[in-house]
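Below is one record:
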Amino acid sequence: MADEVKGFNDKELAELKSNLNEIEKNIGTKMADQTKKAVEDAMKPVSDEVEGLKKFRVEAEEAQKKASEAIDNLSKKANRIIVDADEINFGSQLRKSLEANKDALGNYSKDRKAISFEMKAVGNIGANSNISVSGTPAFAHGGPLSEPGRKPYELRHVRDLGMRMVPLGAGQDTYVIRDGGGEGAPTAVTAGSGKPQSDRDWVKTVVPITKIAHYYKVPEEYLTDIVWMQDEITGVGVEELLSVEDSLMLTATGSSTQFAGLNQSFNSTAFSAPASLALAVNLANNYDVLVAAWTQLRTLKSVATAVVLHPADYAAMILAKEASTGAYLFGAPNQTIPNLFGAPIVPHTAVTSDKYFLGDFSKVRVGVRAGLSVRIFDQDQDDAIKNLVTIVIEERITMAADRADRIIYGDFSSDAAALETA
């Protein structure tokens, strides 16, 4: 047979071809399966990692949700709010506190739970503080008086003169350490020569912490009016307390329970006419007095960051005119803001008329043991039967300058006489 292959007939050849086709098919299928398995094995770690990331994301989202819910619940249950200290404006802090406790205020007649807000120290926390505590508080620079566009006559409280606010932890002593003098001094030293010794006498003085507080009563129905509450607490309660704080900072007599004001010898130096100016200034006026006090301060190696005086004395300086022309010495009040070599002159009612303070107020530290707080409750006297609530506003602070020669305290009339030509 012509078509026969050697050793195979047609039938056997056909079976052989069929078997060969089946083998090729099986081999291809097996190789495909093996390839698929190899790819799957290679991709499995990647797939597992992707699944793990998906699972992690789901768990993280659930944890975040639970944390947010927990924080919300704590905020709702809390009856004390610590307000963000970054906002210097007390009114905005108070409004946030009132808004945060809006429900508690509205339901006060039902729940009868005391409500308390603590305002963090409004002002700046100063570096290199010499009011110290038995620990190491954190400090930062800053001050409302130095804010861009701030006009000196807009300043409302003495603490805003650039004083440094220092937080004081509970149970910590509050003290000021001052240089009481000493012996020796630095000098130029040649190569190989010995260095001179300087000895200093450091004096540590404990500064008492003073509580400033008051309270008043309002009908409990008023608690639901947030706008009224903000105006009432800020305008009446807080401003009256800070007004007392202003007076204490300037004129308080020191005692075992009361810090000394800036007019006391512990915190300031009395005016003394510099030798070059004593009885040497013709027609000496209040501005001449300030220049002489500035000279005294610079001689003591301090600088002036501000001058504080009574508004009446401030106005008299602004309205001062030349006798011959009637021209303002300082320039028209609507054009010129009086200053002393760049240091702002600040009018303030807490200063006694005819008195003044001049110096570096950034070296005055205000220690805050308990920040200004507002508490509302009805467990006082007959509040419950009269539907009244008692609003208590208080703070615990202390104050001291790091040295007495940082501030010059004087009297315009007597100091002008010390300058007037004989």
Confidence is low (pLDDT under 50) at residues 74-88, 120-144. The radius of gyration is 39 Å.
